[in-house]
Structure prediction request, 105 residues.
Amino acid sequence: MTTAPKDTKSGLPTAADGTNLDACANGNCEIRVDGPTTIPIPGYSRLGGPVKIGQIAPGSVTATSSLFGFPIAGTTGVGGTISLNGLSVKVVAVQGSSAVLRLST
Prediction:
């Protein structure tokens, strides 16, 4: 079994798209976020706005967005997935207030 290389500075696995939030434009990416972050997803039209990553803590990550003007949200820990109207946000790893997330449609 092969594991992703780790960023020796943060202790997190290296995200395929690094910290490039624009890689998530179509709803499919693997990124590292450091603290609360807004992820633009203009090419994914099933949500009414960007995905906002709120709290990042050792035990949980919170993601929110909107659907028809109403907020939708979820919280999960490492290995868990938050579903936001067909967009999945998988928490790959958490270290302090940083996380590696995999978004997929």
